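Task: fold both queries, return tokens.
Query 1:
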Amino acid sequence: MMKSPLFIFFFVIYTNLAVCQNSFIDLADQFLKQYVTNGLVNYQAIKNEPLKLYEMLNKMAVEDIPEQDKKAYLINAYNIIVVASIVEAYPIQSPTDVPGFFTNESHVLANEMISLNKLEKTLLFDAYKDPRLHFVLVCGAIDCPPLTNFAYRTETLEEQLNQQTKLALNSNFIRVNNTKKTVELSEIFKWYSNDFGGNSKAILAYINTYRSISIPQKYRASYYPYNWSLNDIKIKLESKSESDSIPASNSTNLQTFTAGSLLRKKQYDLTVFNTLYTEAKSNWQGQNLSNFRNTFVTHLFQFTYGVSNNKRINLGIDLNVRYNGTVGNDDAFVNISEAFRFQNSPTSRVGLTSIGLRLKAQPFATVPDFSIQSTLQAPTIRNAEGNAQLYWGDWERITWWNQFFYSKTFHKFQLFTEVDLLFRFKVYETQIGMLDIPINVFFSYFPTTRLTFYGMTQHVPRFTNNINPQVQSDWVIPMNYTASGGGVKYQLSSQMNIELLYTNFWRGKNSGLGNTFNIGIKYISK
């Protein structure tokens, strides 16, 4: 029987679409088998040879996938997009390191720009109402259901969905303590509780449907914290080959954590940075001065807290504790001890000298390496800049410190740059305002997974306004200085590191010339 031309036309179109879809599934299956082992992904290998990934992404642009094949197709598409997004930003320590990871509509699927959130919530969950999807869609983190080393296919999808759900709900994804009669659940059940019945009783009933050993309903249920560390096989391999490496399950890479890095929601950072600056020379209005010793000790206490789901806004508070001292006519190094008199006098000062409120933001979702920090700081002691009875303690002005950060990591190296606009506004008529523009460059080398060496250079010009030589109470004049130094950081654990830094102020105009000795300690919550 002769087929009509119209029938042949639609048959060819359908066949081509099916071939494209099957080509994507086959490519995904080969790709996952090559790069996924026990749920961990070899992102470095994909980054080195991305052609197979690019080929899959191109196939995903095919339109009009046959309806009966859509569910399997979209599951694979979601997982491949997650891998591709991580590879693009790699090396990173967590998908949350990429601003807008789930919300940016930057992925092409069926000739449409789409975000991971829309793909997950609209095209999959709204369309299919299947809670099992939670156990096959991956997010690139350790506590996500593991990425399989095979693709999902229409003809075996039901079996694969059931298999992955059973594997998840009979694993450490559900943590049962029969002694305490408690069960700790993944926060997935908290975030998507309505998909599992909406309350703890219904959630346990759903879980028990797939458990080989049921959880008694009387057990008290809670949620363990979600581990957003990257499901990177490289971290796992390094933890086996290096005695000083950090297990992947607890990994937080503080090596690449810079002043510009942001925290995810509810994560916090405690930092104490201790600085001893001592000078025995200065340049002042054309004269080189010496035969004195000025020493300034500062303890900067910082608390930072993540407040946004997309890891783009942090809030913080800064506390400055200072004790300073000066000795004239003697530049002996032992006179550093004058700063440790802990007295308020004409030659020494001590106290909580200023408090600052801080906002840090990542303004451009497409430029995750760039961030801005703005701090408004006020003095907390009287006569902060000193008088006849009191030595200098801090700036007796309102300080508005704006910092612009950019960093780039290249395997074992990192370049970090910072440019600041540091305004100090007068609080008395007899004062003048000033603007400092610190420019900083840091270059880091990571010889191991815990150790960092770095060098730095800083140049700071100061500009002032309304200089009035008749006013004797304000001594601020234009100046500039340059300092360079080197430091080392050591990661004590997945959440804490210690930093040592030495700098030398080797040139300056209308400024002191001295040295700093710095010790910093940082703790970041999981």
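Query 1 returned. Query 2:
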Amino acid sequence: MEKYLAAIDVGTTNLKTVIVDTAGNLVSKASREFSNIYNRLGPGWVEQDAGMWWQAACQTSRQALQTAGINPTQIAGIGLTSIRQTIIPVDKNGDPVRNAILWSVKATYPQADWIRENIGPDEVYRITGNTIDPLWGTPSIMHVIQNEPEVNARTFKFAHVEDFILHKLGADDFCESYSMAGCSLIFDLEKLQWNQDLCSRMGIPVEQLPRAVPSGTVVGRVCPKAAEATGFAEGTALVTGGGDIQCGTVGAGVIEAGEAFIVVGTALNTEVCLDKPLFDPEKRALVHPHSEPGKYVMESTLLTGANAYTWFRDTFCPVESDAAKKLNISPYELINSQVTSVPIGANGLIFIPHFVGATCPYWDDTARGVFLGATLATTKADFARAIVEGACLEMRKSLDIVQSLGAAVDQIRLSGGACTEGSPWNRIQADIYGKPVALLKVGETTALGAAMLAGVGAGLFKDVPQAVAQMVKVVKTIEPNMEAHRKYEGLLEIHDAAYRALSAGGVYKKLRTVTAELS
């Protein structure tokens, strides 16, 4: 019988189960959405009920298998990929003992500040490749240990999403990939293990952390209970995929030094493949283990990516949403047409995309979103284009940093829901970056990468390069318009200056203080 591969991809607002064949063709996909729990414990808290993930995994797996119309025994392996930096305290049975704390939490900044003041950003970056920020999950672990003693007493492991779902499926213990563990403030980047000293100083017992293994590792088999719940065949190999961004980098075929990948999802990420860790003396860009064993990625993340587009749709576009329903199209098609109707520069409107804080190159969790340059002539379409340009200008800064450190970038492969064929995001990115951008046959690069790693673990491929050669296809390349690129250079300078002026004036910190007092 022909063999297939499955991937379970847990995102910030939805979970997908994807089935592909060994040529990289998408056979079936099923998804379920879920919602966040905001401010349950006060301002800045973002949580989820982890039970929703398992329920969604069971539902989507059954649906994907039914749609594919294949025998479950034809699935050679199941790869897991998920959002990173999200913490789920679980008991010995693998059941959550509290809500999961999401990567977008801001309420754990006191713990982040403690790390910054008592250990310091230089030491943390040298060991882990990460800057100090609440999003990395380690401050969330510290919060539970320090402030939720009843929860901590019941906590067997501080799991991430990857190992939580793998364990539910039947993994032997709590195992996660290096690429997932590396997105913390306590994982040694070069030794590829939890750093005992950092854990001790932060008060985190190493025995409460999952076992870290390479991506593509078989960590168990689907157990009878999970087989009944999901429809997968008992005994199917369970394989570590890793962090969503690193798996997406594999799914984009970016596995050689100098190749780059940008994904425009809820967040917007840039990944440049490295043969060995390359550190930024100014600690602006991050370094993480790749999901291709033995490789690394230099990463920059914009926490406000396509989610700003979603915010715009939900807040300002009820007319477009209603019209789209009648036309049986996505409301984004109508919003995209507004973007393309506006000239470069959005008629003077600039968007600083820091809705949930600034990461690379500023690393300022007090920063907030700004629209600058609005006049009485500014239109809704100007806002739509400004959002796209503002996000891409921010990522351009990250690309400039990586290249200044000696990592050449010749072509950028794109993925994410905003980068479909015909989307204005593609042209705008090519022009702002001044680089060719390539679109891929399978846009679900995160799930595809996890499935490819499952294929390696299950023995269908000898290694990741063989899987890439067989499963990843470029379908279109967009060359930059260099005249447009030159116009964006001036906007880039203003974009940077606007953030720096607000930061230097203490505006963001004062706003956080006043907001806390008013809430």
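Both queries returned. Flag for query 2: The mean pLDDT is 95.
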